[in-house]
Specification:
With about 120 residues, the chain is an alpha+beta fold. The chain contains one helix and five strands, in the order ββββαβ. It has two domains: about 60 residues, no CATH class; about 35 residues, no CATH class. A five-stranded antiparallel beta sheet has the order 4-3-2-1-5, with no helix packed on it. Strand 3 and strand 4 form a beta hairpin. The two termini are about 15 Å apart. It holds the Pfam family B3_4.
Length: about 120
């Protein structure tokens, strides 16, 4: 679950995090100071940009809502990311009969989504 608002920013260091497929089940691996991460009111959601997902927010059989992150670092990648999100929305509808309801783009000038 996402607690409060989700943000993209630099870690202060020590934000709570347990990685999916980490060194051990439920082994704490807090964020490092200055690391770029997605975070909410309870800690890191995913670290190393979008590379390391956390167990607290992982998708499972009980998931009702999900946040899917696709990253880009330049205009060409941004165009491909937008295409990928569109295609992913189509596939989610086709295979799970679920409509996607929101599409946000986070940038350094827009680092947070308010629910």
């Amino acid at each position: 679950h996402i607690a409060g608002d989700m943000h993209l920013g630099k870690a202060k260091g020590g934000e709570a995090f347990v990685s999916v497929g980490g060194n051990g089940e439920n082994e704490s691996d807090p964020a490092r100071e200055g690391e770029i991460m997605y975070y909410d009111d309870e800690g890191a959601v995913c670290r190393s940009l979008n590379w390391r997902d956390g167990t607290r927010t992982q998708v499972n059989d009980d998931t009702k809502n999900a946040v899917i992150v696709i990253e880009s670092v330049n205009a060409e990648q941004a165009a491909r990311a937008k295409e990928a999100m569109s295609k992913l929305s189509e596939l989610i509808k086709k295979y799970f009969n679920v409509e996607t309801t929101a599409d946000y783009t986070l940038t350094k000038d827009n680092p947070a989504v308010q629910r």
